[in-house]
Amino acid sequence: MEDTQEQIEQVEQQVEETVEEVKEEVTEKVETTIEEVKEDINKLKQDVKGVAESVSNAVSSKVEATTSSAKATINEIKDGVKQVVSGNSGCPYSMNGEFSMCSQVCKVSKVLQKNPSFECVKKIVLWEDIVQTGILFAIINLVFVLISFCNYSLISLFGYTAFTVTISSILFHLISLILSKYVQGVSLNNQFTDQLKTLSFHVHDAVIEKQVNNIAELVNTILSIAKDVFGCKSVYLSAQFAIVFYLIGCLSKCLSNTAILYFGFLISFVVPRLYAEKKEVIDQQCSKICALAKEPLSKLHSLIPQAQTTSTKKSN
């Protein structure tokens, strides 16, 4: 019996020791887990603070940028209003606003800038790709030389060019067939036909729709300007266009149609690039000319009768 009691006591002691060890291990694990959870919570707090700060900085920067752009726009509007309102500013364009030739040209220019091909034409006339623009410039010059000095027409040039390209393609194809049939290991590849295979001779409906809409808008803009000019909506506007029409008539008497087209071609290929390179110098000279012409233009403008509009309301 005594031995049994001793064994029971030993077992109880071992159980108590085991329980104490388990408690210690569990408490250690719980404490470590709590510490890890606290660290994760602190990290999350820091991340949330960082995100909030970045969001607030981004929002504040956007608000500042929007505010600055709005202030700049307001200042521009104020300057424009001051220029229009100032009675003796000296420039008839600023006094007449929409009734000036500059404003009418700007209307047409804005419509042309909406054209899908505007960016491509802009790159060509600004010589951004020298090779492409140089080849086009040389081809157009050759066409003008053949028309002016060799008595060719555009239709005849098109016919001869298409005939030459077609015959060359046929001959090249026949030669390549003969060489591949009778000469072993020799083959010719027509680079022109290979490039034509990769090209798509198809214009999408969306592109056609954009071009038609732009052309319709351009025609309507020109018709609106013609209505204002021929209907004498403003004496000053009609007088400006009358001078331009007279100069066009005098110029057409001195030059042929081909010469006028050629000079227009040279101006379109030379003037934009020249202005892009010498913009500061040209702007300075233009400002000097405007300053010299300010006083006589203001005197001339004072002699032109201003249109007065009266509105009457009918009451039933």
TrEMBL record:
Gene Ontology process terms (BP): response to bacterium
Membrane topology annotation: Multi-pass membrane protein
GO cellular component: endoplasmic reticulum membrane
Region Disordered, residue ranges: 1-26
Species of origin: Dictyostelium firmibasis
Annotated Reticulon domain residues: 121-316
Domain of life: Eukaryota
Keyword Lyase (UniProt): no
Protein's name according to its UniProt entry: Reticulon-like protein
UniProt xrefs under Pfam families: Reticulon (PF02453)
